[in-house]
Amino acid sequence: MVTEKIAAKINPWHVAQQQFDLAAERLHLDPGLRKVLREPQRELTVHFPVKMDDGTVQVFTGYRVQHNLGRGPAKGGIRYHQDVSLDEVKALAMWMTWKCAVVGIPFGGGKGGVIVDPKKLSMREVEGLTRRYATEISILIGPERDIPAPDVNTTSQTMAWIMDTYSMHVGHTVPAVVTGKPIPLGGSEGRNEATAQGAVYTLIDAANHLGMDITHSRVAVQGFGNAGAIAAQLMHAQGSTIIAVSDSTGGIFKAEGFDPNAVLAWKKEHHTVCGFPGTKDITNAELLEVDCDILIPAALENQITAENAPRIKARLIGEAANGPTTPEADDILYKAGKFVIPDILCNAGGVTVSYFEWVQDLERDFWDVAHVNEKLHRIMTRAFSSTLEMSLTEKVNMRTAAYLLAVQRVADATSVRGLYP
Ligand code: NAD
């Protein structure tokens, strides 16, 4: 597929640095501070053995990167994917720094990843890999230092294993070392839905700003996992028509719309969205270009590029995924009058409720889902309106506006702390 080939060639770390440079330039950031914020503070690479079910030993490679710790402990997910690279993890860590700053939560940016296709491993092998990876990165993680969470191909079960492994090492139970845990281990109500819920809050705000009626909108969603499937369900529940969804195996389309809850049940049984009765199979590249009002990329980086951006029909794009749009594509979309809610704002609901989970774990005091969502709504709406105001005043797109807010906040925190020693 043409788009996949282009995506593979674009280095997400170069994209992240390019986006930062744009904001640093506009903010006239001090040159020394600019050098500091342009690089991650720490990068750990680990090669570790795992005993496989057939008795052989395989060595896997993983990473944990902390981009900036100026505003608090590092926070960011762990990804299991065959295409993980150090540069991808560095980009994701930097985006976490800006994301936490955009929504104003007291964390820095971190991210982790292991080069593995977990679908090719048994459950026991994934558990062994997770526990050994957690052990290797335990020199960095901890409730006051660096708090992982789920990302692509990792789940609440993965977080439970990491929490258990860390707790075994220190000799007592430490729920706050990870977020996105199962509820009985100190997970938060609403965390599983938080990324999608936060994205939907920003889509509603954007639709109001654009004068769009969201209840009559036609929506396409790329990626049908934690972020994408729940976003499709929530949009459907509030009246939108879901006309296309996809996963790593391909996509489905029906102009009159379909019920994403039924697609989820189909996917559970068939391990793909493709072939869902009454729909036409399409490719992931075609999904991005379908005639719709709202497009929600919720899979991987570099999906909307200079090559396909001119053919995107959606008026409103909500980036539930991290890094789905390249800087060149951003310019094309902005000039074409498209409204993009950037990843560091749109998908910040996940890290926001992760923050709530961490607070609840530390206080041993747990909130109900209504309280979680009410606080999440307040934070997302505040972040959306500050970003929109910056975008209108500075006459820049929403991504640059979010960067201006975030980079300034991190720069202020870093410079007021001073340069040690
Ligand atoms: P997930 O593993 O639950 O789901 C990923 C989905 O993307 C799956 O349906 C998979 O089949 C699909 N996919 C993978 N490769 C694809 C491809 N080439 N084309 C189309 N679909 C493909 O992961 P997730 O947690 O939903 O993460 C998705 C995106 O959302 C990532 O960019 C992630 O960084 C971002 N995100 C997730 C969270 C969170 O809390 N889980 C928070 C913020 C951002």
Keywords summarizing the entry:
421 residues, alpha/beta, Rossmann fold, 2 domains, seven-stranded mixed β-sheet, five-stranded mixed β-sheet, 15 helices, binds nicotinamide-adenine-dinucleotide
In the CATH hierarchy, the third-tier topology of the largest domain is known as Rossmann fold
Structure ligands: nicotinamide-adenine-dinucleotide
Q: Give the oligomer, counting copies of the same chain as homo and different chains as hetero.
A: single chain
Q: Mean of the pLDDT scores?
A: 97
Structural class: alpha/beta
Helix content: 40-55%
Give me the CATH architecture of the largest domain, please. 3-Layer(aba) Sandwich
Calculate the terminal CA-CA distance, rounded to whole Å. 52 Å
Beta fraction of the residues? 15-25%
List the uncertain runs.
Answer: none
Number of domains: 2
Order of helices and strands: HHHEEEHEHEHHEHEEHEHEEHEHHHH
Shape: globular
Largest β-sheet summary: 7 strands, mixed
Q: At the fourth CATH level, what is the homologous superfamily of the largest domain?
A: NAD(P)-binding Rossmann-like Domain
So how many helices?
15
Radius of gyration: 20 Å
| CATH domain class of the largest domain | Alpha Beta
Task: Say how many strands there are.
Answer: 12
Main-sheet strand order equals 9-8-7-6-10-11-12
